[in-house]
Design brief:
132 residues, 0% strand
Amino acid sequence: MQLNIPDNFLFAIFIAVIALYEAYNRDVITMGMIFSVIPENTIIYVIIAVAILVLNNEIIRMRTEAEWKSEARRQASVQSHRTEYSSETETLWVEFTAIFNERRKREKRSLTKMYNVLSEEIDLSPSTLAKF
């Protein structure tokens, strides 16, 4: 799993918040000490920065999803005149295949392991998925 810079920043913020929370709960530091080091405005800026990073990650995810869907539709339109299925069925098949392959790549699973995971999720036998 490769993290981009916004993900690393969010992870660092998360770790810092957990560390401050634990230190506060164990009476190592007080709220006065925290506010003397971190002004109140800084907390607002951090919240805004985190919100922007989360939105940026969501926009990137949506762009990536739109790109592969567009590619899937293009492939389906190329294949549709060569098969007995409707273009809508072909598009759905290509999209399913793209999602399957993307998830398999992201989770680093073999075909067999992916069939097993999906079979549990959608209540079909792995052999049915493999034949399909």
